[in-house]
Amino acid sequence: MKTAHKLPEYHLNLSNLLNALNLAYSAAHDSVAFRHRHDHGVLRVTGADRVAWLNGLLTNDITRGPCYSAWLTPQGRMITDMHVIPRSEDLLLEVPGPLAQALAARVDGMIFAEDVRVTDASAEIFALEICGPDLPNALEVVTHSLSSPDALTAREVQTPVRGTVAYLSRVAFVGAIEALSHSGIAALDDVTWEILRVEAGIPQFLVDMGEDTIPLEAGLDHAISHTKGCYVGQEIIVRIRDRAHGRVARHLVGLLFEGERVPGVGQAVLHEGRAVGPLTSAVRSIALNAPIGLATLHRDAAAEGTRVTLEDGTAASVSALPFAAVPPT
Q1: pTM of the prediction?
Q2: What average pLDDT does the structure give for the chain?
Q3: Which range of residues forms the domain containing residue 291?
């Protein structure tokens, strides 16, 4: 009797969870939602030489305003990805949270005679993302919550849902969260955000790409300027672009799984009995009502429609990214 009593309660809780996910997902696509980008940290770069010096280090042209960029080794492998936000008095670098402290020390250690200083400001500056069609109304709520609205630092985002990321002090961040919540604006939980991310085919550093990744393997051409001056690792990127005509050994792809079960990440993807890469992300897509995932596969197995199998026997087919049936953003 005890077990029989708990079973309906379990299903009720699962049903509530699924309803909550659907509501948050719908809010992001149809109205507006917000989230604390707690998986990211913020570095602060100061000094008169900061823009010119950093522009010679990163892959994108940061002189043109906020941008997505990468920092590479001389061999063209990724040290990290980041969002660069220029301000009048400094530069903010939004980086993977687990790496923030080490990256600040590593970047600071590369400064010689330049007037540049890099600090980890993750405990002082917080990233608040607001996304969805009703973004202007939510931004007005945030602006009214600030003591100095004109000082708001923000950048636009296009994926997985169009929106804005605002960078706020601790006090301003708490006030903005309270104002958004009191206005009835939905908060995006981590599970829903992961579904949105995977559906949109956005690779996450330390998850779907890492220190052995060349940006072009992960589809990060938008993080690279092909017109600015030199940067670390540029020779490898140019060689791939011009001599190999963009041909790389591996490609980030989507996987559509057969069945209803979301497979465990980390296992090998097999093609014709050979391991061709790891499964790095897997979720149940709300848009497709099916399990999907991300993997970086050898180019021989990366063509759309290629049939593959996971180590646990789950069958799948390779999909282009973003997943085609996901609503446009």
Answers
A1: 0.91
A2: 92
A3: 13-31+185-205+249-329
